[in-house]
Fold this sequence. Notes:
Number of strands: 6
Number of domains: 1
Number of helices: 0
Distance between the termini: 30 Å
Order of helices and strands: EEEEEE
Amino acid sequence: MRLKLYRMRSLAVENGKTTCKDLKLEFEGKRAFVLWDSIAMGDFELKVRLELDPKQLERAGGSGWDYFYRGQLVLPRPEDN
Length: 81
């Protein structure tokens, strides 16, 4: 099953400073996921996805991204794993 990828922008806090993050976004039915990373392994693709609250997505257009996420975006940090 091939999912359509969209582009998403969100505000995120990094090192105490607010910054904009541009990420890939995909939908699975009514659920929304930000695509943090992916690795191709032959015919398969392993994805690291974080589920978002779809009610916090605002449709945008013409500015290089399809959606703006108004919710809190907490991205994983490798040093925390």
